[in-house]
Design a protein that fits this description.
alpha/beta, two-stranded antiparallel ribbon, 3 helices
Length: 168
């Protein structure tokens, strides 16, 4: 089961989609709960900015679930976990290739540009009391100087939690 989860994360990371990807792991009519809580996270080794981001993501998910009518309780029916997976990718562009129609050849007059960037996936999962995965949602993102990554992750956490549609 863990292999499937990690394969799904790798697929989402490589697809670079900007929409929320979610799916039910079990039949949606069997997902029923009233209360939720978060798995305890080890935040001792995190820097202050990371601790703040962690608490803001948790608050964003909590607010969305509370808006759906669920209650946050430490004795809960389901447990919520979330992970941010980061990696480095690159894109390569070849510009100014010249194709001569007369002799059907490309001439090597071109520029190659490679851009390296960081990208990641925010993954939110709902687990039952027996550690069985019930639901999973994710959204990929690219780290850019022009975008505040912290605000983006908080917004994405809200969007992913909003995409959970219980009792369909």
């Amino acid at each position: 089961m863990r292999f499937f989860i990690y394969a799904a994360i790798a697929f989402f990371l490589s697809s670079c989609t900007t929409k929320v990807i979610s799916f039910y792991v079990v039949d949606e009519s069997r997902i029923s709960f009233d209360t939720f809580s978060f798995y305890a996270r080890d935040i001792k080794k995190l820097r202050p900015q990371q601790k703040l981001l962690d608490s803001l993501i948790e608050r964003s998910i909590s607010n969305e679930l509370i808006n759906k009518g669920y209650n946050k309780s430490y004795e809960s029916d389901i447990y919520v976990s979330y992970k941010i997976t980061m990696g480095t990718s690159s894109t390569t562009n070849i510009d100014n290739q010249h194709f001569n129609r007369y002799n059907q050849m490309y001439y090597p007059n071109y520029n190659v540009t490679t851009t390296n960037y960081k990208e990641g996936v925010l993954l939110i999962e709902f687990w039952d009391k027996h550690d069985k995965l019930l639901w999973q949602g994710s959204k990929s993102f690219k780290v850019r100087k022009s975008v505040n990554t912290r605000d983006l992750l908080i917004k994405y956490a809200q969007q992913i939690a909003f995409s959970f549609k219980p009792m369909l």
